Amino acid sequence: MSVSVDLSNKTALVMGVANGRSLGWAIAQQLLAAGCRVGFSYQGERLRPELDKLLAGKDGVWSQQADATSEADLVALFARVKEEFGHLDYLVHSIAYAPRQAMEGRFLDTTPEDWNTALQVSAYTLVSASRHAEPLLRDGGSIVSLTYHASQQVVPKYNVMGVAKAALEAATRYLAADFGEREIRVNTVSAGPMRTIAARSIPGFGGLYDKGARNASFGRNATPEEVGKLALFLLSDLGSGVTGQTMYVDAGLSIMTVKED
Ligand code: NAD
């Protein structure tokens, strides 16, 4: 089912598309289908061919390399946004990373270096990207990021990434307060397990995905398309009045303890 939203006079920046399975791409597809003009940022030049393939033949799109932890890259990225669009309506942050070793052992053994990397890439970049976006964002604009339930409950091996997601969710509320006067909304979408590159780097993700499908109230996992539709709701005027929230799209996984056989 497609949702009918007209975003033909709107502009968006989507940060963090690695390939066609990326949740950032699922969101971008909804924006593009609604007529939005969309710019993309990707982490390194090795990701460019994949993005170029996805964007081939699409109107009103452009892309630029930007490591979200680099101030210089963010300056250049938002200068490009200004040049291409003049302003910005929507910012999508779909970025996370923790060093693999931090997700293999015990949370107790997290090193300061791995803690800093995970928190900087996965939470602080929402703050820095929002700050760079601020002068370009039109009143009534909207910012959406992606989070995961390991912020609220222990998910084996998620470790410092669970802490980073808790920081992201708290940052969402503080950013929503700062942007409130201009009615620029800031929300985060808590997605159930999805098969993406980032997920594959989590040890034991396959088991988590299968158990998720069994335990969710729907008896299946949510889909990237469903993530895209919730993000579209939150970005567009359909979500007016909603800010500072963590909204779940997980086919009812987080509400369950154990399902009856
Ligand atoms: P993905 O690997 O497709 O996307 C992650 C993106 O982060 C990649 O494009 C990667 O290049 C980018 N990235 C990492 N470090 C970066 C940096 N320093 N600068 C710029 N970009 C950087 O995987 P995904 O699952 O689509 O992840 C997108 C978001 O969704 C993440 O925040 C992730 O935690 C969240 N999420 C994923 C799941 C899941 O099960 N896949 C569930 C809930 C939330």
Automatic annotation (TrEMBL):
The keyword Ligase does not apply. Substrate binds at A98. InterPro entries: Enoyl-ACP_Rdtase_NADH, NAD(P)-bd_dom_sf, SDR_fam. Its EC number is 1.3.1.9. Pathway: Lipid metabolism. One of its GO terms (biological process) is fatty acid biosynthetic process. The active site is at Y148 (proton acceptor), Y158 (proton acceptor). The keyword NAD applies. It comes from the Bacteria. It holds the Pfam family adh_short_C2. One of its GO terms (molecular function) is enoyl-[acyl-carrier-protein] reductase (NADH) activity. NAD(+) binds at G16, Q43, I95, K165. CDD domains: ENR_SDR. Keywords: Fatty acid biosynthesis, Fatty acid metabolism, Lipid biosynthesis, Lipid metabolism, NAD, Oxidoreductase. It is an enzyme of class 1 (oxidoreductase). It catalyses: a 2,3-saturated acyl-[ACP] + NAD(+) = a (2E)-enoyl-[ACP] + NADH + H(+). Belongs to the short-chain dehydrogenases/reductases (SDR) family. FabI subfamily. This is Enoyl-[acyl-carrier-protein] reductase [NADH]. The lineage of its organism: Bacteria, Thermotogati, Deinococcota, Deinococci, Deinococcales.
